[in-house]
Automatic annotation (TrEMBL):
SUPFAM superfamilies: DNase I-like. InterPro entries: Endo/exonu/phosph_ase_sf. It comes from Rhizopus oryzae. It comes from the Eukaryota. The lineage of its organism: Eukaryota, Fungi, Fungi incertae sedis, Mucoromycota, Mucoromycotina. This is Endonuclease/exonuclease/phosphatase domain-containing protein.
Length: 345
């Protein structure tokens, strides 16, 4: 549902600029800038000193912009090097850090358990659009995932066709609840014909599975948030063998949670085969987005040749088309009389 337009890239690939918009214009485009600052001290100093003359911010940085990446230093800690004064002044005048502004996430390490070097910044006009933000542990990675949710527009697609999640059958608790539901079905089903009774049973079964899934998903979110909070709390404690062991235990539990989420995401994306342990969520999200784009009608051409894209116009055009398609045409009385007159007995 997104249209990503590359705008600019540095020769070494450390600076990228792109514009993101919705294919149906649900919201105004957003500029996204990605940076990867060198890790070595001398290279980092030279890179930041020449940064403002390298990146074409003058033409792009007006509003609705996001600046993110691996900065390899804490932008909220002043450096003693005077040559970086212009860099820090530019950062704090033009950008807002919604994650660091939250006391819950302030100074949480984003690289291993040591330092805060990854940031996601936004311009001032997007501050009111921030819905949520978080720092999460990512299994098999030395960087944490930082995220900010922006409310830019409302979706125009519905929930689609419902299908039961087959991974539910792997849980003994679900199997026991399902067995009890089917066993007690005769007590809540009316006395009707078998075909109608079967349809009613399927509707009741769908409601039961959806209710079970919603409760299970809420419990998983609760457990995941609890584990993330526990890890953040442990990171703030003095480092010793016991604390490191507790962090490792929490991270192993988080890895199990992410494995389940990746399996469900792969299922939603329509990928029926994947390597054992594969968790390329970026790939799965891309496949899921492609499926949604194939199911979504962004424009319709009318009989007059006009292309409509607005939701109300799309609905009205579709209604007129199907109304004409399924409306019976008036009978030609003269043609009927001629046919009957020439009917050969």
């Amino acid at each position: 549902m997104l249209n990503i337009i590359p705008l600019w890239s540095s020769i070494d690939g450390r600076l990228l600029a792109t514009k993101v918009s919705h294919i149906s214009g649900l919201y105004d485009p957003v500029n996204i800038f990605v940076i990867y600052v060198p890790a070595q001290h001398r290279e980092r100093i030279e890179f930041l000193r020449s940064f403002l003359t390298t990146m074409p911010f003058d033409q792009l940085l007006t509003s609705r912009s996001v600046f993110l990446g691996d900065f390899n230093h804490n932008i909220h800690t002043r450096q003693s090097n005077p040559s970086l004064a212009q860099w820090f002044q530019w950062i704090h005048l033009n950008w807002h850090d919604p994650i660091n502004a939250d006391p819950e996430h302030n100074n949480i390490p984003t690289f291993r358990n040591i330092s805060t070097i990854d940031f996601l910044l936004i311009t001032a006009d997007l501050i009111d659009m921030v819905d949520n933000h978080d720092i999460k542990y990512v299994a098999r990675c030395d960087h944490s995932a930082i995220s900010t949710y922006l409310t830019l527009g409302c979706p125009r697609t519905g929930p689609g066709i419902w299908r039961c999640n087959p991974y539910l059958a792997q849980g003994p608790h679900f199997r026991a609840e399902l067995t009890a539901f089917c066993t007690n079905a005769e007590h809540f089903l009316p006395d009707l014909d078998t075909p109608l009774l079967w349809d009613i049973f399927k509707c009741r079964l769908k409601s039961f599975i959806q209710s079970f899934s919603n409760k299970a998903a809420a419990q998983r979110r609760h457990n995941l948030n609890k584990l993330q909070r526990m890890r953040k709390w442990l990171l703030r404690q003095p480092t010793d063998d016991e604390t490191n062991a507790q962090i490792a235990s929490v991270e192993s539990q988080l890895e199990l949670q992410y494995e389940h989420s990746s399996s469900v995401l792969a299922l939603r994306s329509g990928q029926r085969w994947r390597e054992q342990g594969e968790r390329s969520n970026t790939y799965f999200y891309r496949c899921l987005r492609q499926r949604q784009q194939q199911q979504y009608i962004s424009s319709i051409r009318t009989d007059t040749g006009t292309v409509v894209t607005e939701p109300l116009d799309l609905t009205e055009t579709a209604r007129e088309y199907y109304e004409q398609l399924y409306s019976p045409e008036p009978m030609d009385e003269q043609a009927t009389s001629d046919l009957l007159a020439h009917w050969t007995r």
